[in-house]
Amino acid sequence: MDSDSLVLAGSVWEIERSNFDRELPNLLGLIERCDFIALDFEFSGVGNDPRRGQVDVNHKPTLAERYKEQCASAETYRIMQMGICPVKWLPDAPREPKYSSKPFNFFVAPHVERKLFKYDRAYLFSASAIDFHLKNGFDFNKLYSRGCLYLGRQEEAHIQNLKRQRDEADSKEIDVKEEDIPMLEHVKAQIAEWIKTREGNPSEFLNIDRPAGYNGYQRRIIRQYIRREFPQYIGVWYDKHLQVQPIDEDRERKVVQKREDDFQKVLKVQRGVRHLIDKIMELKKPLIGHNLFTDLIYMHHMFIGDPPEDINGFRTFLQQNFGLIVDTKFLAINWSETNQSAASTSLSELAYKITSLKYPDIDDFPVNIEKNHVAGYDAWSTARCFVKLSTFLYFAGSEDPAPPAETEPCLDVRKKEIVAALAIRPAKAGYSRLVDLELADKKKLRIPYWSSNFWKVFGGRLCVNGTIEGEFTI
């Protein structure tokens, strides 16, 4: 098998909690080797206002207001399904050059390992989201019973802080209630008697128990009592009894290390699908989505933490932590091929419209069924639209998009780059040129190189319908 191919024998396109750890190295390897990644999410709700759906004819929100609204929504609702589709160009594929795609779908469950200090989450749905997903065959049982785990960076920092607090609390002595003093004195007498009888046999230990058992508070005060009264010994709690042992420094270090290792293993498992987001950010792979302004805000809240206070802070975060970001909806509104209707730029409509564009070739979806509004399928559909549209717009030309509508000073340099790139674009060639290229040299039919001026014009520009500006420019 071609080492550049993204096809992995034995991999499945729907990843569940039971096989996530097994598939994770393959998934990370695909992200490392791919040229770009298409992403899609399904949400438990969008919009945080109970009056949502009402029309205020006297007010159209600004981009900054829409950002605040979506941040509030992301705080209330969650990503419950995630689709990623790594894609790689194969110029020497057996029959003809093509793009190799590998879509994956993940239900994202709210569950948290109970070992993580009983950390819990609220998980809310909007009624409209439930109705929408039920109509599209969403399996809510699979979400809860087999969904993959996740843990945001801010959540992880909070859990790490809980652990530090617990460790510090364990090392501090707490006050003993007067009614528990006889119990401690009884423990002291047993240990003192055992120490007298164990000379010459240093490997012995003492088990202490009582019919009534011990609660958590009693276990703690007994341990601290032994630490203070018998500093050469340590108390180890088992299920129903306490075992007193001579201190072994090497053993104690191993016990502490094992406790830390076990904690880190649980954290790693809990991170779940965040491993994939972290890898995308680490490598700054080009990220493709359809109408993805909301997706990026939800992704930040779920996998990073609270989004920046204002939209310029969010812009800076994206610039610093991601590579090129492309919105296929923005590409679609600038696709003006005369035989196609521009009335709708929804993903399903767009996917239907591009069926006339044969090249570049991209792998078919691995399951022979159309699954609109399933995140893994929509991620693949987004990748397919991206490949076709960007190639068409590059070779055949398009209407020149207007410079960004935002007036923020931080965008001055970006606007100049876009205007300069537009000034040197070749004249619109028309659809016939693309047909000629399809017939003449298929190897030339591929998305523009990432260094191309094309991406200064079409990259980093996200549609935000219903706002005054209509576009968010990164």
From TrEMBL:
One GO cellular component term: nucleus
Listed GO MF terms: 3'-5'-RNA exonuclease activity; RNA binding
Keyword annotations: Coiled coil
Domain of life (superkingdom): Eukaryota
A Pfam family this chain is assigned to: CAF1
Residue ranges the record marks as coiled coil: 152-179
Annotated TM spans: none
GO biological process terms, semicolon-separated: nuclear-transcribed mRNA poly(A) tail shortening; priRNA 3'-end processing; siRNA 3'-end processing
Family to which this protein belongs: Belongs to the CAF1 family.
Protein name as annotated: Uncharacterized protein
Natural source organism: Orbilia javanica
